[in-house]
Design a protein that fits this description.
With 314 residues, this protein is an alpha+beta fold. The protein has a domain of 218 residues: q2cbj1_9rhob like domain (Jelly Rolls, Sandwich), CATH 2.60.120. The chain is 29% helix and 15% strand. The strands form two sheets. Strands 1, 2, 3, 4, 6, 9 and 11 form a seven-stranded antiparallel β-sheet that branches. A four-stranded antiparallel β-sheet has the order 5-10-7-8, with no helix packed on it.
Length: 314
């Protein structure tokens, strides 16, 4: 069974043309310029200590008000809860660890674009993976008291990045805590510094939730938690009543395949109302994937892409 790729490739070509125009007017830095721009962005936003956390602990927590206003966080939370109610999901089996997942939310409401484009988390994403990092997932999670078992300890690089893992992040996760994030409501737990091991979690550590070195990450509503893809982490079981709401936005480096096909639901209007960084996040700054007609030659070496050798921040 086959299908005609031409409609898809024509749509992609149009999106890439819009993306190229955005980048031409608002170029993303590469090479040494990118490394210097990262430092400038981090300093301007007052994120130096949070960048140090990412280096040393492998995760950091932006407090309420630094990533976004309380009003934006409330709108995102309410929209996720509304979608959860609209879809009338079946009750989860007792003992699940992950809560109810609402996949591919970005195109559902412009409020999600606002969250994605918040400057402080994106500055730290650029610090970890450069200005051409791509969005890999965009999902809401509602966790209630059916989540009565812990989530296994794992690293996000696992099954995505071949071993041995490089020390630089190839994947990172940005999690918006849209309700209070506590041990009782099933918060994430981490082994600080394990991103430096560049290795997967041994089988015998997957349920080590009582280990003395494990930290439970507690944060008030409106916080944003960011972690390196090599960090060993999981979640403790939820024991409190009510609902814990999060927005989860994993990112990947430019050369990796995202987990969701964002180009399939990106519209010209979404590109037009956002900066060139949005086009990068949607994976529209390269020639691949292509269909039966092969790559668009305009994207084999775009005029706006520096010819300098790429580095950590490219």
């Amino acid at each position: 069974m086959s299908f005609d790729h031409r409609e898809l490739t024509q749509t992609l070509a149009e999106l890439r043309r819009i993306a190229a125009a955005k980048v031409e007017a608002d170029r993303l830095p590469t090479g040494l310029a990118a490394a210097l721009q990262v430092r400038e962005d981090i300093a301007k936003l007052g994120l130096e200590g949070y960048a140090v956390d990412l280096e040393t602990k492998g995760y950091t927590v932006l407090p309420p008000g630094l990533a976004a206003t309380p009003e934006l966080c409330e709108r995102v939370r309410d929209r996720i809860l509304a979608i959860d109610a609209e879809e009338k999901p079946d009750s989860l089996e007792e003992g699940n660890s992950r809560g109810r997942n609402m996949w591919h939310l970005l195109h559902r409401d412009p409020v999600f674009e606002e969250a994605l484009m918040a400057p402080a988390p994106l500055a730290l994403v650029a610090y970890l993976m450069g200005y051409r990092a791509k969005l890999s997932q965009f999902r809401g999670i509602v966790k209630d008291d059916t989540s009565t078992v812990p989530m296994e300890i794992h690293a996000d690089h696992s099954r995505k990045v071949p071993a041995p893992w490089p020390s630089d992040a190839q994947y990172c996760t940005v999690t918006w805590a849209l309700t209070d994030y506590t041990r009782d409501n099933g918060a994430v737990c981490v082994f600080p510094g394990t991103h430096k091991l560049c290795s997967d979690v041994p089988k015998e550590w997957e349920m080590a939730h009582d280990h003395p070195d494990l930290e439970v990450v507690e944060a008030p509503a409106g916080s944003v938690i960011i972690w390196h893809g090599g960090l060993w982490h999981g979640a403790v079981p939820r024991t409190a009543p009510g609902k814990r709401v999060t927005l989860v936005m994993p990112m990947v480096r430019y050369h990796l395949l995202p987990q969701e096909s964002f180009f399939a639901s990106t519209t010209p209007e979404m590109l037009e109302r956002n900066s060139s960084r949005f086009a990068a996040l949607m994976g529209l700054l390269g020639a691949w994937p292509w269909g039966v007609d092969g790559p668009d030659t305009a994207y084999t070496r775009p005029s706006w892409l520096s010819t300098s050798r790429e580095n950590r921040f490219a």
